[in-house]
Amino acid sequence: TFYGGVFQWSFREAGGYLIAYNQDRPLAGVFQRARPADKPDAHPRWFGYISVPNVAKAERAVTAAGGRVLAPAQKLPRRGEQSILVDPEGAVFGLVKSSAGDPPDFKADPGDWVWIQLVSRDARKAAEFYRGLAGYEVVENVQPNRVSDFVLTSKGFARATVRTIPTSQADVRPAWLPFVRVANLGDTLAKARGLGGQSEER
Asked: Distances from the Cα of 24 to the Cαs of 8, 12, 67, 68, 111, in angstroms?
């Protein structure tokens, strides 16, 4: 209800799993799970998937570099093979080898994912972790008033940025933060607040 109201996404159920659509384009999945009894502070989150040629090999690279596998590789009908992991700092991400191949790069429409950023305690170390995992080129941002410290690129396109969490923000946990393109930021924020959302400045 919240994301449909904010971004005009529609949802279709697929065996206990909701698929979100922007117009007719599938762009996300939503599933519900019980809060772990041993983690009372666990909370909902968005995370993205990295396309890799071999999921099992990439899993081994993650564990060798200090990450963990949360859900091991499995093959899904009309999806391909995927797994869910955490990097050495605890940021959740997925690996996927799509049975349909990677979609082409295109300009995001309003309601589409348009960017993703990793917030990390050590941006340089985190960027090197993902470079080793997926072969990204790591480009350092040397601008004096930069927001992010590194850009991850592949095939000539910027794919993500990595930002260092200020030491003063001890409550911020390392995580991937995806962005949605909107036609009007003010209108979208008003819709989100009206549906119970909150905005934070970090």
From this structure: 12, 11, 35, 35, 11
Question: pLDDT digits over 159-200, tens only?
Answer: 999 999 988 888 889 999 999 999 999 999 999 999 999 877
Q: Burial, 34: exposed, middle or buried (Cβ in 10 Å; 0-12, 13-18, 19+)?
A: exposed
Residue 104: phi and psi, rounded to 5, are -70, 155
d(CA 140, CA 152) in angstroms, rounded, equals 9
| Separation of CA 99 from chain center | 20
Dist. CA 182–CA 174, nearest whole Å: 25
Of residues 153, 156, 90, 96, the one with CA closest to residue 126: 90
Handedness of CA 87, 145, 199, 110 (dihedral sign): negative
